[in-house]
Each structure stands twice: as structure tokens, then as C-alpha cells.
Design brief:
Layout (H helix, E strand, L loop, with lengths): L2 E4 L2 E4 L4 E7 L8 E7 L6 E7 L5 E3 L7 E6 L4 E6 L8 E8 L15 E2 L3 E6 L1
Parallel strand pairs: 2-11
Antiparallel strand pairs: 1-3, 3-8, 4-5, 4-9, 5-6, 7-8, 9-10, 9-11
């Protein structure tokens, strides 16, 4: 199973970007997919994830109201719409997925089994 992330780039403060994560198969249709990020010198942190079966989501407080996750069943793809970007959003963003179905409260700390390559997001001030 492979996860292919794309959509990163350079954007100014207040701008928008949309990341995509395409899974090579529909293994995660009963599980969960989401995004983490890692800024230089910092640990990787949870951003957001969506439980595929019912669309339940869990957002990090730092991105609530600015980021939106969505899914496309036909394409086995998850999208991350990032609006009102801030310099502190600068990081490498990683797509993650798991075929198991965590309860919503566990989504942020779940041991995701599959990871995509990172995509760089840089927000300039």
C-alpha cells in the first residue's frame, strides 16, 4: 500500500494551499486517514484526520477554523484545504493512514501503520 502526497509549495501569509493524499488501494475505507507535520527542529505533530466510514474528524487546536479535511471515495484520496496560512504552519506535511478504525478521541494519537512521503509547505511573511 502506498500513499502519495502532493500539493505543497510556497505561499504568503494569509494564503491557501490544498494538499492531496492518494492511496494506492482502498484498504483504508474502513479506517482512518490524516495529516501530520514536522517543522525544523520540532517533533512531528498531529494536524487532522478523518475516519473514512462516517466522516468523523479530529483537528489540532492550532488549525481549527483554518484547515479542512475531506475525502473522495472514488479516488481513495484525502484532501487538506489550508486557508489563512501562518508562518508557524511551515513544515513538512505527511499523510498517514490505517485500516483500523479508532474512536474519534484516539485519532490524534493512533499508531498509524502507513505513511506517505512528505510535502513541504512554506509560508512566507
Amino acid at each position: 500500500v502506498q500513499l502519495q502526497a502532493s500539493g505543497g509549495g510556497l505561499v504568503q501569509v494569509g494564503g491557501s494551499l490544498r494538499l492531496s493524499c492518494a492511496a494506492s488501494e482502498n484498504t483504508f475505507r474502513r479506517g482512518v486517514m490524516g495529516w501530520f507535520r514536522q517543522a525544523p527542529g520540532k517533533e512531528r505533530e498531529f494536524v487532522v484526520a478523518i475516519r473514512w466510514t462516517d466522516g468523523s474528524t479530529n483537528y489540532a487546536d492550532s488549525v481549527k477554523g483554518r484547515f479542512t479535511i475531506s475525502r473522495d471515495n472514488a479516488k481513495n484520496t484525502v484532501y487538506l484545504q489550508m486557508d489563512s496560512l501562518k508562518p508557524e504552519d511551515t513544515a513538512v506535511y505527511y499523510c498517514a493512514a490505517d485500516s483500523r478504525r479508532p474512536i474519534t478521541s484516539a485519532i490524534a494519537t493512533w499508531p498509524y501503520a502507513y505513511w506517505g512521503q512528505g510535502t513541504q509547505v512554506t509560508v512566507s511573511s
